[in-house]
Design a protein that fits this description.
alpha/beta; 7-stranded parallel β-sheet; 14 helices; 16 strands
Length: 426
Amino acid sequence: MGPMNTVEHVQTLGQQAKKASALMAKASAAVKNQALRRLAALLRENTQALQQDNAKDLARAQANGLSEPMVDRLKLTPKVLETCAQGCEQLAVMPDVIGEILGMKQQPSGIRVGQMRVPIGVFGMIFESRPNVTIEAASLSIKSGNACILRGGSEAIESNKALAKLVQQALVESDLPVDAVQLVQTTDRAAVGQLITMPQFVDVIIPRGGKGLIERISAEAKVPVIKHLDGNCHTYVDDPCDIDMAVRVADNAKTQKYSPCNASESLLVAKGVAAEFLPKIGAIYAAKGVEMRCCPKAKAILRQVSGAQLQDATEQDWSEEYLAPIISVKVVDGLDEAIAHINHYSSHHTEAILTRDHMHAQRFLREVDSSSVMVNASTRFADGFEYGLGAEIGISTDKFHARGPVGIEGLTSLKYVVLGEGEVRT
């Protein structure tokens, strides 16, 4: 496809999505759920064929020298496909929020005013590597009565095409418009530039990928963007706290998995509990090979831990998203300094306080300016599935429209509805 053809291709997708979105908005819950169940069945029936298409992407990725973790993300194993199928089935049994009316109240004039939940219309999703995102995005789009245009990474093109074909088959077999879910069929980068500058067709853009991709889209888009750039998440160990619980949670928040955006990257410890807490967590981090980048006070205490990998923290470390077995560690005077540090350095993703003081917990919840704030729980819970949203389309650290994990409701909008019996304004 030449540059002109790419632009035309994406514009055509936009026109088709706009038409399909009107039909999706009218579709009944039963029909949408039928399409989701059919998609789950198709994923299971076609597991072998999908793996053959996936093998082409894997071979190309290895030939191009893609790193092992990146190749791993591309794999459509039977387990990954089964998880996708189960995700579709879970969405199918969830209540349909489209058309629900909230907060209907009688006004002095006699009219009744409320808000109705409606689909956003058309969303564009731009994502890298993981082909299972094709199914996540498509299934959420169907459930929320939207149409979507998906642009996956070039490294997963064969897998994404094969998955998108099954989605369209499920739509057609359920009497829904085939264009409700469309995949950009070209790997030309100009397609992204076109998709994010078509407000006449696309209502919102959702990027999922590395910081570079998201920064580029945020800067160039002419359409609203739901995004988070990075996850510099904090765990604050308060004075007073249950030390054993704090050790368990701080360990899980960092080491349960290093690569997700909700893993803790920074550990703040109140000076009153530092001498008791730090050697205990330090021993666990040392055993797991986690490097600790410390302030002078933290380093002085952690020196006693045998095998501890200690470095002096630089100013940059307080803002860093490592996505690796590295954590910054700082001893703070108490709650006030912890809140000030988090609001200054965090990426406003997820922060947790571990405390036995109810008033401290309440202040932390109120004053920390992040999309998820937790008391006595691991930051690793910041996830649409764990929050009971069914699936998630991503996490938003913006303050408008959607904030935190974005599920079905994040793909909807509210419009005012007014019910009257002939009232006129005086």
